[in-house]
Design a protein that fits this description.
45% of the residues lie in helices and 0% in strands. The radius of gyration is 27 Å and the shape is elongated.
Length: 186
Amino acid sequence: MAYVAEKQAPRFTSEELRARIPGWGADLDPKDRPSVPREQRLETGAHWDFPERQPELQPRERSIEHAMLTPVFGTTAPLKGLSGVLRRVAYARFSEGRAAHWLILLGADRVDAIESHLVSFVSARPDNPITQTGILSEGRRHGFSSRYGKKRVDTRHTWMDPIIVAGPWVLAGVVLFRVIKSVSKR
């Protein structure tokens, strides 16, 4: 079991591992191991052998490599919506060593951003793309002179920035206009 003060007994003997894995045991000599001082049991004054577990009020994502959730974990961003479903799939099906795990988590972040934008429309304070993207500061804070003539790498994609930032908003406006137009015709 993980997170206990006592050192665990190894599952396989040194001889079994050396016979099975070429080169195993190269760091068995304590003089060659930089972690040896940390492996010594020191008296810390802790009143527990295994830390008290934090209650898991909502199911948390956990790696398939670990048998249990760590004794203490973060709860600031509970899983929600489609992005939460994607995160659960990433943790339930794929090891953290697989690219699929991380690609699904990246996709879940993008889905979460879209969900947050959609939720902001029904809130009292919807997102404001003009002020929140910093586009107004381009004209006020030397935006043009800081980019051109300075050999900056990011000037190559500057032309795409308005499309990436304003594109979804324009597309949403066009779709909304067409929906309202088709409903009003009926």
